[in-house]
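TASK: fixed-backbone design
INPUT:
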């Protein structure tokens, strides 16, 4: 367990701005908090920096295919940057998969008003300030959709905010914040060799987190293209391939 103030102080020392026993002035500490929040806000766009996958849910409304999400939306929850998996649950607690598709696949659906008891397709449009979750076909029953998204980074309200971090994150915060402090006017007091080592270590610490957070990706294919009753055409024999 650490605090925002402790991380900012260590970052100032890593940059050479502070000596080993020196502490930041009140003004420098506040500037450091701004820089730290800006860095974490940027990291929220990097899915492999996320602490964990967050599962949330919402109830389907009969006939409704689009649901806004964000403060004041149909789903009054933090707007996600992405949706990576989803499924639907009926009143008997039976789960059914939903395919999460990109925009081009969603646009290929010609008649989006088709109805079904169990929708099977989800497209997330990350508009701002409200994202939009699109469902197809249009639901006939009030089932529940569960979806997974990568979590945002921390939002530190004060210097005294306590932070509990997974393995490896504290080092990445300190070393990368040291570089970020330069963007708010902190002078870099290291020689060229020490600064190059700081850059290397900051990149290494961030890379270690991303490697640890890599998830297995299962390849998918369009069954309409690959799973056909007739064999694939053979360009060498100018005829369908034979087994």
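OUTPUT:
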């Amino acid at each position: 367990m650490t605090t925002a103030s402790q991380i900012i102080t260590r970052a100032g020392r890593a940059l050479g701005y502070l000596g080993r026993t020196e502490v930041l002035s009140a003004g420098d500490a506040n500037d450091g908090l701004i820089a730290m929040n800006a860095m974490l806000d940027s990291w929220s766009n990097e899915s492999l920096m996320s602490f964990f996958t967050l599962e949330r849910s919402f109830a389907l409304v009969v006939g409704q295919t689009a649901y806004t999400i964000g403060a004041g939306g149909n789903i009054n929850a933090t707007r996600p940057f992405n949706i990576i998996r989803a499924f639907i649950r009926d009143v008997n607690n039976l789960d059914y998969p939903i395919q999460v598709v990109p925009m081009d696949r969603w646009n290929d659906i010609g008649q989006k008003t088709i109805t079904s008891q169990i929708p099977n397709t989800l497209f997330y449009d990350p508009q701002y300030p409200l994202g939009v979750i699109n469902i197809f076909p249009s639901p006939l029953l009030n089932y529940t959709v569960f979806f997974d998204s990568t979590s945002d980074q921390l939002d530190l309200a004060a210097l005294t905010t306590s932070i509990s971090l997974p393995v490896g994150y504290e080092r990445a915060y300190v070393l990368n914040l040291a570089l970020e402090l330069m963007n708010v006017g902190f002078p870099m007091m290291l020689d060229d060799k020490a600064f190059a080592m700081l850059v290397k270590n900051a990149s290494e610490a961030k890379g270690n987190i991303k490697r640890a957070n890599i998830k297995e990706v299962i390849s998918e294919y369009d069954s309409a293209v690959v799973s056909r009753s007739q064999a694939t055409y053979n360009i060498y024999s100018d005829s369908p391939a034979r087994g």
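COMMENT: The chain has a mean pLDDT of 89.
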